[in-house]
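Journal club prep, notes for RB
We'll compare a predicted complex against what the paper describes. Inputs for the iron/sulfur cluster case:
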Amino acid sequence: MAITKTDFMRGMQCRKMLWLDKHKPGLRVIPPEVQARLDAGNDFGDRAMGMFGPYEEMTVYLPGKKIPDKKAMIRKTQEHLAKGTPVICEAAFSNYNNYCAADILRKTDTGYDLYEVKNAPEVHEQFVRDAGFQYYIITRCGVKIGRVFIVIHGPDEADPFLPQDVTREARGYYRWINDNIWDLNRMQKQPEEVAVEPGEQCCDPYECWYYAYCHPFRDTAGQ
Ligand code: SF4
């Protein structure tokens, strides 16, 4: 695959981060608290699949591995779209090899609504960008998306799934994504390491997992 949603967001935070993901992923240092947050987010996402009742999940793994088989997921998604399945989870799409998997697609009279699930008490702008990327890929695959929601973690643990309508804001990212996705595609494939000076992007919106690699003297020289 070319650029995934995660690739795009990481590449837009810092192009060097994306390049390192592709060429030197062994340099990553993921803090335990970050890994715990990612795991909790995955659990919340798994629970949210049932928020509209029965659903079909598109996740398929490569034989004997816990690695998603994206091509099989795309095929399975197309089968369920053709059948008119009412709720499709982890719905996978590819456009010119750029890829996304939507947490939940819910059928409407005119197409599908898109739900991106986030284990957070409020909507952050990077969540809307995530949803915007999915809107971009899915609509370019010919599926009509009506409304776009971020599902946040509400205070009622018995029913914590609170959809927030971000349709206008997510659609607003369409041109920004199209303006950058092709450059990221080209850049991630180049053999020479991308040169980027450390700066504010190293911690905004997320602390970079290559921080130690790019700041080798931080602890010893106070830099
Ligand atoms: S530490 Fe900073 S400069 Fe280095 S890859 Fe991460 S964001 Fe980019």
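Talking point for the session: Residues 14, 16-17, 20, 196, 198, 201-202, 208, 210-211, 214 surround iron/sulfur cluster (CB under 6 Å).
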